[in-house]
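Me: I hope this is not a bother. Any chance you could explain this protein sequence and its structure tokens? It all follows right here:
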Amino acid sequence: MFSLPLRDDALLRPLEPWNATEFAEHLERAREHIRPWVGSAFASDPAEVILERYAQRVAADSGRLFGIWLDGVLVGGVMFVAFDVASGVCEVGCWVEPGAEGRGLVTPACRVLVEWALRVRGMHRVEWRCRADNARSAAVAARLGMTLEGVLRGAWLFEGARYDEQLWAVLATDLEDH
């Protein structure tokens, strides 16, 4: 089992089915806070179902889920929402519970995923999608060096209302410039 320090008090490590109890407790603290900003299945499915879904994606090399632990407590995470090796395109996402916002955890955790996808796995493109009114999420994409490529009008459905969705991306060739 690997664990990657994000800083002295924070770790990034895989979230797997055996973490179901801890993940369920975390989701109880986070669910209402993240519901408007994440996919509906992630915000509503039981912890066990989410972890099993991602375990299957890991086995198929089509997605991954990692938790962020702060002082030994699971407070959020990052994931490859999609990971398509054949096309060289993947999507990174994140979430945190309210007490972990603004603590400098998400950007370094996402940076690990972006750099791994581009430098180790040879992906061509890493995407980031967020509701256009989610300023915190857009700020993470910008800090990751992503470019806002456009706005998909009315593409995000939440509780019967439609919201615009931003599409951000970074290409492997962008890293060569830095």
Summary: The chain has one domain: 4-176. The longest helix spans residues 20-34. Residues 4-176 form a domain with the Aminopeptidase fold (CATH 3.40.630.30). The chain is about 35% helix and 35% strand.
